[in-house]
Design brief:
665 residues; 16% strand
């Protein structure tokens, strides 16, 4: 007795005509939205052109002005996009922790350290850094990029034999129908399991068992994603979005069995591939022949805000539709979006427009014209230099010269009747004005792109002093901060979605998730502990704020060390003039925080060994936190607490005896 999941593909009761009308309306909306973006997303459009520049593409040999002409593409877009992407990703992922967790209003502050450790562990397991690297690269080339955060579900087919109770008559005997015993069925359609001694029949049933595995990610290009409506000025005006995806026919059949898609709608889509006539994916020149199980269907998934149940309120629905066959495969209330209040598709728009939900393309709107001019200059210089170095020759018409018999080359002998039968043309080398024009173009690229040579990692041709280079790099960092702010905001959105998905995952598994030894050790040092060494949904529940920790300053290791050392010296100087502050610096919690930051800044491998060993003396009470009536702190040789004096000396900033902190600095 095979069993199919009872969840319907449709949450809204509609007649067949109403559903067909809705499918047609949604298909028109999607087609019009993609058509309105055709100049950007169509084959040969702006996005393809930018990809061509980023990949250092070459033109068709037929389009070159003469055989052997140079075919050089500007490196501006490749250089700046790679440098910008590396700065954004490394800025956030080089910081520890990646994302700080704070208790929000009404949240549970005691849980925040455990939640932070959990996500630090899982971010690595999920490969979030690799996905963010892809999405940032795409957001710099295109006018935005999308990271979809969804639940990863593992399904497997289970076949089992169960004892099902039989329907019995007044005498206790089984009731038969058409020669077969009747089985007892519950109100929900499930078979009733037989109790001991009860008449039963062995029944083999097949069903699909699902297991939640946490979040997974999908990077979506703006060629496959549109907002509805596309003319929306901001996200408050957006009532939906649509993304294109491809699914193989066997996958659709499995989802029909799992109760996700409607069987009749999938049947309408057929088994013939939809790839024919569709845009060819990048990197390949043509789509492989698809037949049978390899046939793919083009589908669109919408997140739609509509009042479809007639209650006068709009709700969020998830809809899967085939625009080619004008049929809806699924229409479900999106309970996840309604609970979280945020869409699964997170837009990464690093340079937002003031009047559109779509953003500016760093490669296209900032660098494209400069890259085209640079391409022309590079080819001009290369062609002119090649002609000047290997100037062509003229041959007098009627001259007795046969280059096939006596080729022109180094050390060759060529028989001529007169010495003026062959003459080499004089081609002047590249004029200095072209060289100056290219230098000016490089400077313009720095002004527009916001990255100087030093920030890209290139030795500048200009002779600048160290101070000038630092000023230029600092100005470049300020411009990067704006894009970094939008990047951080999108990551907060991702973290909130991840957090809710993990709560749902752990609620479905009452055993929880076993934590590795490193996570348990980090929690124990902070005075935290997990019951049975496992994370549960209860430990993650609460109102939390996720704040990416990295910044432009923390991305520079040498600068972090410099800030740390100078900060410790400043604390030491303040402790000399403020005795209560000196007392605070002797507190165990303060010492632990300083040791943690020291280990983080200097990238100590086994930092937990230092933190764990730092324990207050058991025979002594902790010193007071300081105040007006607090006793003066114990003074070392330099007027500092002994612990601070030793720490300053270890940093090489203070002498071990004699002299004050100000004198040593």
């Amino acid at each position: 007795m095979p069993k199919r999941l009872k969840s319907s593909a449709f949450d809204v009761k509609m007649s067949a005509d109403e559903r067909d009308r809705l499918a047609s309306d949604l298909s028109d909306e999607i087609d019009q939205a993609f058509s309105a973006r055709a100049d950007v997303i169509a084959d040969g459009g702006t996005i393809d052109l930018l990809d061509w520049f980023y990949e250092q593409g070459q033109s068709d040999p037929k389009d070159r002005p003469f055989p052997g002409a140079a075919d050089l593409t500007s490196y501006f877009i490749t250089e700046n996009v790679d440098a910008y992407s590396a700065r954004l990703v490394d800025t956030l992922f080089d910081a520890e922790p990646f994302c700080v967790v704070e208790a929000g209003p009404g949240g549970d502050a005691a849980k925040a350290p455990a939640v932070e450790q959990f996500h630090e562990w899982q971010i690595v397991e999920e490969g979030l850094q690799e996905e963010l690297s892809k999405v940032v690269l795409g957001a710099l080339i295109e006018d935005g990029h999308i990271l979809e955060v969804r639940e990863r579900v593992e399904t497997r087919r289970v076949v089992e034999e169960i004892d099902v109770a039989l329907v019995v008559n007044e005498q206790g005997g089984p009731v038969f129908e058409d020669g077969n015993p009747l089985l007892q069925m519950a109100a929900d359609g499930e078979p009733v399991l037989a109790q001991d001694g009860q008449p039963s029949a062995k029944v083999k049933r097949t069903y699909t068992k699902t297991r939640r595995l946490g979040p997974e990610y999908d990077v979506i290009s703006m060629k496959d994603f549109v907002y509805l409506p596309g003319h929306a000025k901001n996200h408050r005006q957006v009532w939906g979005y649509a993304k294109r995806f491809w699914a193989r026919v066997p996958e659709l059949d499995e989802q029909v069995e799992d109760g996700i898609y409607d069987a009749a709608a999938v049947a309408v889509c057929g088994v013939v591939s939809d790839r024919e006539g569709a845009p060819v994916p990048p990197v390949v020149s043509e789509v492989a022949t698809q037949r049978g199980p390899s046939a793919e269907k083009e589908l669109f998934e919408l997140s739609l805000k509509r009042d479809l149940d007639g209650d006068g309120r709009e709700e969020w629905y998830v809809v899967t539709v085939s625009t080619k066959y004008r049929v809806i495969l699924r229409l479900k209330l999106d309970t996840f979006v309604m609970r979280v209040g945020k869409s699964r598709c997170v837009p990464f728009v690093l340079f937002p427009r003031r009047n559109s939900v779509y953003g500016y393309s760093y490669a296209g709107d900032k660098l494209l014209t400069l890259a085209e001019e640079h391409t022309a200059l590079r080819n001009m210089k290369a062609d002119r230099g090649s002609l000047a170095t290997n100037a062509p020759v003229t041959v007098l018409r009627g001259a007795m010269v046969d280059f096939d018999a006596q080729p022109f080359g180094v050390g060759r002998r060529i028989d001529v009747s007169r010495h003026d039968d062959i003459q080499q043309l004089h081609v002047a080398d590249v004029p200095n004005s072209v060289v100056e024009q290219e230098h000016g173009l490089v400077a313009a690229k720095e002004r527009v792109g916001g990255l100087s040579d030093t920030s890209i990692g290139v030795q500048s041709a200009e002779r600048r002093t160290l101070g000038e280079n630092q000023l230029v790099a600092g100005g470049s960092a300020v411009r990067v901060k704006a894009a970094l702010g939008h990047f951080r905001k999108a990551i907060q959105h991702v973290m909130e979605l991840r957090h809710q998905i993990w709560i749902d995952t752990l609620e479905a598994d009452h055993n929880g998730l076993e934590a590795p030894a490193g996570v348990l050790q980090a929690l124990s040092v902070g005075g935290q502990a997990l019951q049975d060494g496992r994370f549960t949904a209860a430990q993650l529940k609460g109102k939390f704020r996720f704040k990416p920790y990295g910044s432009v300053e923390t991305a520079d290791p040498s600068q972090r060390i410099q800030y740390f050392n100078q900060g410790m010296i400043a604390l030491g100087n303040l402790a000399k003039v403020s005795p209560p502050l000196g007392t605070i610096l002797q507190n165990f919690e303060v010492a632990k925080a300083i040791a943690e930051e020291w280990a983080r800044v200097y990238k100590v491998r086994n930092r937990m060994a230092f933190i764990k060993a730092l324990q207050p003396p058991p025979q002594m009470a902790l010193p007071p936190t300081g105040g007006i009536d607090a006793p003066p702190p114990m003074q070392g040789d330099q007027g500092l607490p002994p612990q601070m004096s030793a720490l300053m000396a270890s940093l090489g900033q203070l002498p071990t005896n004699g002299g004050g902190a100000g004198e040593a600095y």
